[in-house]
Amino acid sequence: MPISNAIALLPTPFYQPIGNEMALFEYAYRNQLPLLIKGPTGCGKTRFIRHMASRLGRPLFTVACHDDLTASDLVGRHLIGESATYWQDGPLTAAVRVGGICYLDEVVEARKDTTVVLHPLADDRRILPIDRTGELLNAPAEFMLVVSYNPGYQNFLKGMKPSTRQRFISMRFQFPKPEVEQIILIQESGIEPSMASQLVTLAGALRALKDHDLEESVSTRLLIYAAKLIKDGFSPIESCRSAMIETLTDDLETVHGLMEVVHAVFGE
Ligand SMILES: Nc1ncnc2c1ncn2[C@@H]1O[C@H](COP(=O)(O)OP(=O)(O)O)[C@@H](O)[C@H]1O
Ligand SMILES: [Mg+2]
Q: CB within 5 A of ion ligand 2: which residues?
């Protein structure tokens, strides 16, 4: 079963804009255009969508896509009840019915048969045919399809097909500028501004390194983890080791190399 959850009108989570993404999202929503968000892990994509769904007052249906995820996982299936079988909507169908936002995270992981249901919903037809029940749903104006993927670690063959890509407005997320990332760190962890500033400096130095073949660099999420440990009194250097460096790599030599950068920033 897909991991899905309708987050019904919870308090709006904190989101610090990094560019014009909030305006673009609202324009896309108003014009009934689906949205593709690409960006590295831990840069704020999920937080952004939760924030926007809440701002727009729409329920959010999130699906973490994986390589076994099929069209039925999205649309729904018949289940066996006590006396008879009954139909259960999948998260995509549920979002279409109530006019919610359906967010497919790491969409390129999903099985290819999912494109069959996504295409007619993502273009101007905005329809969801449910073959198994014979229903044909017209998406209401409030329904929005949002997908994300991480271009960084995509297997080349797994990229999105042009016929799918070209149905979406596209948005690129990158790690926030230092002054913005500092605000996020302070807000999310309660850490002192001077410590947040040092962590952001460290992130800049680590992200600039090219000679270690890391799959991904340090994300805003990992900076927040380190900040939380530090805020609670754990040593900054050891916090960075556990929350950032050991998370990024298994290679001991690389750990030593990256820890030198940590020592340089924290001056011990
Ligand atoms: N612009 C931002 N505003 C507020 N919090 C952010 C922002 N960017 C990142 N974060 C923080 O970083 C964490 C990871 O972001 P998330 O949205 O889960 O990343 P992604 O979905 O891109 O992997 C969030 O839980 C949040 O604490
Ligand atoms: Mg996410």
A: 46
Give ligand 1 pocket residues (Cβ under 6 A): 14-16, 18, 39, 41-47, 176, 184, 188, 220-221, 224
Residue 29 tokens read as 């929503």
d(CA 51, CA 259): 35
Count Cβ atoms below 10 Å from residue 263 Cβ, excluding itself.
11
Residues spanned by the domain of 202: 178-266
First to last CA, the chain: 49
Convert the pLDDT of each residue in 170-214 to its tens digit.
999 999 999 999 999 999 999 999 999 999 999 999 999 876 778
Same domain, 64 and 24: yes
Atom of ligand 1 at shortest distance to CA of 105? 21
**Residue that finishes a domain, picked among 130, 150, 172:** 172
* pTM metric for this prediction: 0.92
Given a contact cutoff of 8 angstroms between Cβ atoms, the answer to whether 150 and 41 are in contact is: yes
